[in-house]
Amino acid sequence: MESEVSNKTNSQGLIKSAGLIVIVILLSKIAGFLRDIIVANYYGASLVSDAYFYAYQIPALAIVILGGMGGPFHSATVSVFSKLIKNFQEKPTPEVKRLFNTYETFSILIFGSIALICFFFPTQVMNIIISQATPELSSLAAYHLKLMSPVILVGALLGLYYGILVTYNKFLLPNIAPSMLSVGVILTLVFSKGDDTGFYLAIGTTIGAILQLLMQSPVIVKLGYTFKPCFDFFNNKNFNDIMELLMPAFLSSTIGQIGIYVDIFFASGLAEGQWTAYGYANRIFQFPVGLMLSALLVPLFPLFSRLVAQNKLDEVRHYFNKGVGSLIYVGTFMMIFIFISRTDLISLALERGAFDHSATLMVSEVLFVISLSIIPYMFRDSITRIYYSFNDSRTPFMIAISSIALKFIFNSILVRFLGINGIALSTVLITTINATLLAFLIRKRISLGYKAFVKQIIKIVLAGLIAFGFGVAIHLFLGKILATTFILKIVKVSIVFFSSLAVYILFSMLFKVEYLFDVKEKLEAKFLKGKTNA
Q1: Per-domain residue ranges for the chain?
Q2: CB 167 within 8 A of CB 76
Q3: Fewest CB atoms less than 10 Å from the CB: which of 341, 399, 427, 520?
Q4: How many helices (H) and strands (E) are present in the chain, helices listed first?
């Protein structure tokens, strides 16, 4: 009985948190979307955009992968601090403050050094990463890297601050703050007077990252965390606990980034604009996937950590299956919609200025392939949080490091025949393999009840296939009777979306997909509660 009450209370809190996070992240994603539109308008798929996206991969390692949602700094902070802090209404104890200062000092020393290397030796760094590039492309990428080098230090601090805020159940600020990166780029480009080197694009990225840090800092101070250098790296047990979790997770994320560097190595020898097309396709892919993952995993991960600490494994299983099942249910429809309407969506969003129809087609092809990884991508990121909750970052790391050799092999074969689409297909294969291995090996820690879970997934796939067939038929029919004007494209995309969604929901009901009924019950409960309060 007590467990049921606990489940209900936690579920209500998670639903409320997830709903707010969806709104905030949507606003942040819209800001990122506007940034991409403006960047595409200014630079299209060109040498300058290629140079920027190549150079940005190094700062992105810090600000997005390491310091972002689900990154090792965020995950390690949440895992350790959520167990260490006993009362979240009071100021942190001296022990907690000392841990915070030790952690921040460590981050500044390590990532400050890396930032200095990228500032003073950008040419050498980029020559290693894009060795197959032309001298002009390599030189321009090095110029961009030098301008963006401060982002590397900022990213590490953001990961720590993000983790502290989430530990205190302050989900909104760390999810709206990333929009500052987009705001910095947008404002810098809008007020620039023309630019054929990408200077304003790179410097706008740096300004945006600094704004993101400044936006979170006052709240961190208000919670009672003020920075004082502390070099207690070896005698602080709590810091050692963080390092035990952080280092394998850091290496795992870095290994993942090395996979991207492997992609860059192969892509740098392709035609101009190919890597830019891959970058835009990945951004569009990340829009719905990142939104769904953030909405679920930001409030759920601290709960996982607390439940594991209390040895409430049944509740961990309950929330994991419900959460991931809902992700896969929504993600399946998003994949269907992207498959059908991707070219129209890209044309509506990006096709203007320097971004022409040939660039649209390039992005469309890559997006089709990379969208095949939506389901394994969401499952992989979700189950990784279970490993982190058990303080096990070693297993994800070992799986990630083993995938590098496979990535190189897949790229070597696929790029030869498919070009940039070969890199996208290689990514799909690696993501699927990683997700499968993580699902298999977690059984050493906890049984997640895959049998019932798989039955529901089969029903989802069947409903999805029927909706896909119906959506394709509607898409082809409308393509014959509607002109290709901007407004009519919106009408076409809207009709395809809502008609295929209706079919998806209808057959989900017929097949009794439980995740659909879960959503329905939650919406009804919220609606009835609203009427009662009114």
Answers
A1: 2-448
A2: no
A3: 520
A4: 20, 0
- What is the pLDDT at residue 234? 85
Q: What's the pLDDT tens digit per position in 460-500?
A: 999 999 999 999 999 999 988 887 788 889 999 999 999 99
Helices in 419-449 by DSSP H: which ranges? 420-441
3-state DSSP call for residue 1? Answer: coil
254-291: buried (b, 16+ CB within 10 Å) or exposed (e) per residue? bbbbbbbbbbbbbbbebeebbbbbbbbbbbbbbbbbbb
Q: Whole-angstrom Cα distance, residue 96 to residue 243?
A: 15
CA–CA separation, 104 vs 98, rounded Å?
A: 10
Reading the block at residue 257, the tokens are 């980034």
Tokens 């004082």, residue located: 228
Percentage of residues in the chain having pLDDT higher than 70:
87
Name the nearest CA neighbour of 174 among 319, 11, 48, 297: 297
CB count within 10 Å of CB 377 equals 24
Mean of pLDDT values over 258-284: 85
The answer to whether residues 436 and 385 touch, using CB atoms and an 8 Å cutoff, is no
Q: Name the band, by pLDDT with cuts 50, 70 and 90, for residue 249.
A: low
* Total residue count of the chain as it appears in this document: 534
- Confidence category of residue 294, pLDDT binned at 50, 70, 90: low
Distance CA 344, CA 492 (A): 9
The Cα 369–Cα 343 span in angstroms is 13
Choose among 306, 295, 272: nearest CA to 54: 272
What integer pLDDT is reported at residue 259 of this predicted model?
80
Contact of 349 with 299, CB cutoff 8 Å: no
pLDDT score at 282: 87
pLDDT at position 353: 81
Residues 355 and 276 sit within 8 Å (Cβ to Cβ): no
Specify which of 18-32, 109-123, 160-174 reaches the highest per-range mean pLDDT: 109-123
Find, among 25, 24, 46, 70, the residue nearest to 280 by Cα: 46
Token reading at 327: 């992700």
Task: Provide DSSP, 93-126.
Answer: PHHHHHHHHHHHHHHHHHHHHHHHHHHH-HHHHH
Least confident of 10-24, 207-221, 316-330, 508-522: 10-24
Residues 251, 333: contact at Cβ < 8 Å? no
**Is residue 10 predicted with pLDDT exceeding 60?**
no
Longest dimension (CA), the chain: 73
Q: Which of 206, 210, 263, 272 is nearest to 43 (CA)?
A: 272
Angle at which helices 94-120 and 135-148 cross, to 10°: 150
Which spans in 44-168 are helix H? 47-60, 72-84, 94-120, 122-129, 135-148, 150-167
